[in-house]
Fold each of these.
Amino acid sequence: MRYLPHTDADRAAMLAAIGVDTVDDLFRDVPPSARRPAALDALPPHRSELEVASHLRALAARNLPASAVPSFLGAGTYRHHVPAAVDALVQRGEFLTSYTPYQPEVSQGTLQYLFEFQTQVALLTGMEVANASMYDGSTACAEAVLMACRLTRRRRVLLSGGLHPHYREVVETRGRYGDLDVHLAAPDPLGHEALGAQLTGDTACVVVQYPTFFGGVHDLTGLAEQCQRAGALLVVVTTEIVSLGLLPSPGSMGADIVAAEGQSLGSPMSFGGPHLGLLATREKFVRQMPGHLCGQTTDVDGRRAWVLTLVAREQHIRREKATSNICTNAGLCALAFTIHLALLGETGFRRLAELNHAHAVLAAERLAKVPGVGVLNAGFFNEFTLDLGRPAAPVVERLAERGILAGVPVSRLYPGVSGLERLLLVAVTEVTTPDDVEQLARALMEVTR
């Protein structure tokens, strides 16, 4: 039975009103071959719910989940332990079905956790103010670049060779349609680039990743001083937010804007999404910050209340005055982030970061003992780059056949760029066990003989 509300008489009346005879006339401009693809006629008959569920389970069983095998995948999406309490609270109806405060005055609970989220992000990044989240780290990075261009009234943008290649692509896309002059540094696995020497009088910002895409950790203080002398802003991007539990904050090194990915706290890998964009800056720049900004005030009765203090987006003000066209935020992921970090507390978060680093150091030491394999990074947090001495992609495929997700071949994310074929990006977190590392080391030794 079809559940269509319109009768034949209703449809005839609507067609007559717009001046056509049949529904097919509405699609006259579409080629006949595209109106009803032959593949639709070849679809099998419908099945029962039980049969469909069984079929989907069989398809899902063909996947190789990171939780079921030794996994060293990273490159911007990381596997961490998410406490059961996070999902239990996030899935409450009060949060799950009303995560966007379209009527902020009656969404006091939502605004309160967003306010707490902003506070957490500001503390982690060492900045003075943070917004209520963006789509993901890459869009937060692009928005940070646009924000820097508005603040400096300049158009030239320098992107570090250590910036995640997907983030670079998003910035390039936004820059192409925003009339920006985007300059890309060559991929820099060793962290030897001299961005300060490329600063000019028309440079709006320099964008660097911390730790870098290749895992390196570098002091940004000198670069921040060079940017300040040139009148440019320093945008720091962090794809692994857990690193800020151990490393100095970007703000403490002179960053002007921080864009980050918050997936590591509260959200699973989930095939790459949904993720959580973080954006923080200095208070003097707040008027050019995109997205929501939640604040605290008092109501007419003197009680504490939560409000949307600043919402400079095109749904609320004139389009030409808006700082962003992002129409919502990652509110539910922000809630998961807030709960996860609150459960950890300051001491627990630092301990989590220490575990990540300690596990990564042990893994790097063990893998460096494999003949022909070397670690490129002098310093790293929980991710490092291996030089396998041979193309990494075939090695990764052979290890996957053995049930080991060995990491990400760097060349896959830099198609057409030579010199990166031997590099393998390896991520190690608190859920990586010594046995996982030993399995990888032994298998790597066997497949590279």
Note: The domain at 84-341 is CATH 3.40.640.10 (Aspartate Aminotransferase; domain 2).
Amino acid sequence: MAGCVVLVTADRRSAELSSALTRRGATVRHAPALSIVPHEHDDQLLLDTKRLLESPPDIVVITTGIGFRGWVEAADAAGVADELIDVLSGARIVARGPKAHGAIQAAGLQADWVAESETSAEILDLLLTEGVAGVRIAVQHHGAGADGVDTELSAAGADVVSLVVYRWGPSPQPAALRESVHAAAAGQIDAVVFTSAPGAAAWLAEAELQDQWTGIAARMASGALVAAAVGPVTAKPLQDRGITPLIPDRGRLGALVRALVGHFEQAQSTAVLTSAGPLQVRSTVALLDGHVLPVSPNGLEVLRLLADAGGDVVTRAQVLAVLPGDSADPHTAEVAVARLRDVCGRALIQTVVKRGYRLAT
């Protein structure tokens, strides 16, 4: 991933994700789209937990591993962890995916059923098919709520107790968030990584607020900007806007990093083939035959223009259009190309008499 600029929009576990990407050669920018309100600061959770202890549930739905662990930790801080575990052990436990299942097992409990698709829809399908009228069901939410689980179960006659273990708050770095959407639209970022649906929705909303969505959507549609989501739930806000994100085969950060690495390795095979080797032009660097070229920002834009043409001729006027200023002097274009040749090698860029320039392919 040498030369790739990757934007990490996560708050939680951002350091872990950033470190993994950096080890693979990427340059990482961090702009958390949302913050997480810690569970130990949420009095409502403790009130809801005590209400559940007083009237135990028949079924408990666990939607996230971190949420379940946080729930037990909050109960422990309040001195009721043992009571909570006892109550849960007497209920039927339904887990939304392997991470929730693992957290349940770590607490010494056993899940009775696991939604392998990691979606709330699969859980709803199971419970509604069985019938829930008169059944008391506790639902542990993640930060954005329970994806309509509460409403659907209540409508079917269940007595639902909702427990929000952590809540989403505004971005802790609003300036960085604002700058990130401008950078993504301007071509300064190669990939944006999302680890939660609320975070993805918040980043997209910021892009709209800053009037940058049109540019971002165009770059994503062309493949110049990659949107990567840790799983199908996280991907949905992007898909709702017509974006097809990169999704790993497993909903893990490690799998997400490997998917990104694989994507950019595959991109090498579709690079522009030149007489000097494969050429890739990324947001801030260019790679020729796998080596980073020390080109200036102006040179990078000229090289991007030539690469996009794929060996076809670009005119001096087109070169001038990507350079700063409003010069109409053909000599300015000639100087820019000459400087680029000094870095890339004179054979890479050919002059086509009376027409312009093209890459030697």
Note: The mean pLDDT is 90.
